[in-house]
TrEMBL record:
Belongs to the class-II pyridoxal-phosphate-dependent aminotransferase family. Histidinol-phosphate aminotransferase subfamily. It is an enzyme of class 2 (transferase). This is Histidinol-phosphate aminotransferase. Its EC number is 2.6.1.9. Homodimer. The modification N6-(pyridoxal phosphate)lysine is found at residue 210. The lineage of its organism: Bacteria, Pseudomonadati, Pseudomonadota, Gammaproteobacteria, Oceanospirillales. Keywords: Amino-acid biosynthesis, Aminotransferase, Histidine biosynthesis, Pyridoxal phosphate, Transferase. The keyword Transcription does not apply. It comes from Marinobacterium lacunae. InterPro entries: Aminotrans_II_pyridoxalP_BS, Aminotransferase_I/II_large, HisP_aminotrans, HistidinolP_aminotransfase, PyrdxlP-dep_Trfase, PyrdxlP-dep_Trfase_major, PyrdxlP-dep_Trfase_small. Residues 26-347 form the Aminotransferase class I/classII large domain. One of its GO terms (biological process) is L-histidine biosynthetic process. GO terms for molecular function: histidinol-phosphate transaminase activity; pyridoxal phosphate binding.
Length: 355
């Protein structure tokens, strides 16, 4: 402990987003990255970028990207916020909306950054358990609250929530903000974007990191009522008035121009996911129904920790969580068919995995 640390910092546990080892020859199925490159339109935009432009500051409003998002998602520019990855957008939202006298509600098992931000901003929170089949039951979110946050589909379970259930929650909960984190929505869940024009209490957060394969550029965004967006802009501007660098703006616009590529690669990942889920089930795994680019599964007899170590020794990285409720589970990112075949072959070679 350093004497210069403030008390709030001393109690913080930093989140590390999985492991990012720099070793050649790894099959990396641990951090939910997209196995395919971004759209060729992105490569074209970056290759033709004039380096001379870099002496200037980027557009502080990222206007071109907001306009491209507005046209793609049928919204107005005033309903859109952009930031450095959805992690940053989430952090700003926690700061802008959730520092209330009543607790923030969140699922017991969800994206671990929610705890990090709540602790960082000293926000009181209450965790709502998942149901017995690991689903987020929004009817359980009836406690008095200063906001509600959940991921749809949830992470790390991968299970989607019905849009009708989200709409019912918005109707019941008009006095506080509901943040829907849709990091994985393009892999098969229904987006709440269609509710943004109808409900002033919903904020939808999405990212270019997963379905658009641009994790390296850090582009996230939020859709909501213009007054919610204004709050985010105020907080953001107090830290750094330039939300995105020029490359991110260029690449983001290029990615949005190629909807066909997004659809094609998402369909490919979904097909690989479904085949991989069946192969895992045949190897005695129980697999949660996934609407994401990852599978959440446990083996009927072997522990998550031993399987993770076994796979790691074979240079295959998957994610294992130390939380007791899910300690037996592995979260496996859906890679290419070839990567998934390597995973399945390694599991088949395990002496105690019966098929
Ligand atoms: N939300 C969820 C549920 C996630 O799993 C992630 C990725 N770890 C994020 C948000 C953040 O993604 P990014 O900052 O890359 O946009």
């Amino acid at each position: 402990m350093n004497k210069f640390w403030s008390p709030a910092i001393q109690s913080l546990v930093p989140y590390t987003p999985g492991e990012q080892p720099r070793i050649d020859g790894l099959t990396k199925l641990n951090t939910n990255e997209n196995p395919y490159p971004p759209s060729p339109a992105v490569e074209h935009a970056i290759k033709h970028f004039s380096v001379e432009r870099l002496r200037l500051y980027p557009d502080p409003d990222a206007g071109r990207l907001k306009d491209a998002l507005a046209s793609e998602y049928k919204l107005n520019r005033e309903q859109i916020f952009v930031g450095n990855g959805s992690d940053e957008v989430l952090a700003l939202a926690f700061m802008a909306f959730f520092r209330q006298t009543r607790p923030l509600l969140m699922p017991e098992i969800s994206y671990s950054f929610y705890d990090v931000y709540a602790n960082l901003f000293e926000i009181d929170y209450k965790k709502i358990p998942l149901d017995e089949s690991f689903r987020v039951q929004l009817s359980d979110y009836s406690h008095e609250n200063g906001g509600i946050i959940f991921a749809n589909p949830n992470a790390p379970t991968g299970i989607a929530i019905e849009l009708a259930d989200i709409e019912a929650l918005l109707k019941r909960n008009t006095e506080s903000l509901v943040l829907v984190d849709e990091a994985y929505v393009d892999f098969g869940a229904e987006s709440a974007t269609s509710l943004v024009n109808k409900y002033p209490n919903v904020l939808v957060v999405q990212t270019f990191s997963k379905s658009r394969s641009l994790a390296g550029l850090r582009i996230g965004y939020a859709f909501g009522h213009p007054e919610l967006i204004e709050a985010l802009e105020r907080v953001k501007n107090s830290f750094n008035s330039y939300p995105l660098d020029m490359f991110a703006i260029e690449a983001g616009c290029a990615s949005l121009s190629d909807r066909a590529y997004l659809n094609k690669t998402c369909q490919q990942i979904i097909a690989t996911r479904e085949r991989s889920a069946e192969a895992l089930e045949a190897l005695n795994f129980v697999v949660c129904p996934s609407s994401t680019n990852f599978l959440f599964a446990h083996h009927r007899t072997l522990t998550g920790a031993e399987l993770m170590t076994y796979l790691r020794e074979r240079k295959i990285l998957v994610r294992h969580f130390n939380k007791p409720e899910i300690a037996n589970y592995l979260r496996i990112t859906v890679g290419t068919d070839e990567e998934m075949e390597r995973l399945i072959a390694a599991l088949k070679a395990h002496p105690n995995i019966a098929s």
